[in-house]
Amino acid sequence: MCLAVPMQVREINDWSAVVELEGIQREVRLDIVDRRPVVGDYVIVHAGFAIHTLDAEEAKTNLRLMQEMADGLDVLDGLDRQDQDSLQ
Amino acid sequence: MKYVDEFRDQGLARDLAAALDRTLTRPRRIMEVCGTHTMAVFRSGLRSLLPEGLELVSGPGCPVCVTSAAHVDAFLALAGRPGVRVATFGDLIRVPGSDGTSLAHARSQGAQVEVVYSPMDGLTLARNHPDETVVFLGVGFETTTPGVAATVRAARQEGLSNFFVFTTQKTMMPPLMALFGDPDQSIDGLLCPGHVSAIIGAAAYGPLAERYHLPCVVGGFEPVDILQALLLLVRQLEEGRSEVENAYTRVVSPAGNLQAQSLVAEVFEPVDMEWRGLGVIPGSGLQLRAPYRAYDAQECLGVEVVSATEVRGCLCGRILQGRARPPECPLFGSRCTPSTPIGPCMVSSEGTCSAYYNYSLSDSN
Ligand code: SF4
């Protein structure tokens, strides 16, 4: 039921958007998305609803932390703790 | 940024797996609670990358699998009524009720059963069949519930009088609190469900980390996401910490999707709910609030949910608690296969038995 892969927004209407993944297009509702996407954005879709609009900066940070962990860098520990603090 | 290719880097996956291997000093058991994680782990072949000694067990996070036989019986009774058309997600259609028949059987006997992709499709059916009673069978967790809430709100705005929802919506925290509150369980850490967390927020797992000293890490669904989350979990265990950490920051924030949360709070209220294998868990389900009761199938159509026995010999209940693995079930692969499923864990593509069967795993892992 849950598609793990982000889909790209091709067209936006009032309550819905047309999204595309590997050439297949689908209409999704925008009622519950956390940030209204613009054409070109990527969204996470679940059962016909966009639930999250991705942000390139967040994704880059996510990837950088992974790379640092893969390299065994301990800088991450510091960053981690900060994330942790902001969770509390 | 395409959000996919970047996270499918095999070199990065290998390096993370190596770091995981270096960090792990003794055997650990991690529960992955989300059916989509279960599927992702098998499909990507991630198991072969994991260090020996790190065991992944599935939890109660496959929505179809935790739907009780009593609820399936009630769905079947409803589908058998004249003038009723039920709309359901595809996975649910083959789940057997207590007498072994499913919605697929009912359909072959002439019942109107439609597989839909979104709850909104139920509204379209109601519009297209004004003389019929259309009932959407609501199963799912926090990721699905906001969409069901939006659908009910849309039905009310449109004034549709022949559309109803049979809600068995469930929330993830109550069963997790029950599971980890049991001193008998032997799980060391929790890989938290990525898209449930997108809605409820990473901070929601705080009580598990604090009360039960359980390391909790939110993870995404690409192999690198899962490996990073496992590495964070193992680090916590090695360092004696139990905290909530987030390895899926591109999708999950600490507070979650507030828009979705407020819609759900407007439309639904907590209710006690029966889970397959776990029994009735207080406050773990959702029912429509008073202003939306006109769309409640159970109330308006008088559907009764009568307690029913689960299929004999099926270990789904224990598998959903991480207490047994599919090959321990005597029916696994013999009488129970994806084409002749006996329990829901073999039906759903997110079910643990089906994942084990399709990726033909022995119990050696
Ligand atoms: S193999 Fe079939 S019968 Fe056995 S636990 Fe899994 S679903 Fe139930």
UniProtKB/TrEMBL annotation, chain A:
GO terms for biological process: protein maturation. Belongs to the HupF/HypC family. InterPro entries: Hydgase_assmbl_chp_CS, Hydrogenase_HupF/HypC. It comes from the Bacteria. NCBIfam families: hypC_hupF. This is HypC/HybG/HupF family hydrogenase formation chaperone. Pfam families: HupF_HypC (PF01455). GO terms for molecular function: carbon dioxide binding; iron ion binding.
Automatic annotation (TrEMBL), chain B:
It comes from the Bacteria. Pfam families: HypD. The keyword Nucleotide-binding does not apply. One of its GO terms (biological process) is protein maturation. This is Hydrogenase formation protein HypD. InterPro entries: Hyd_form_HypD, HypD_1, HypD_2_sf. It comes from Candidatus Desulfatifera sulfidica. Belongs to the HypD family. Signal peptide: none annotated. GO terms for molecular function: 4 iron, 4 sulfur cluster binding; carbon monoxide binding; iron ion binding. Keywords: Iron, Metal-binding.
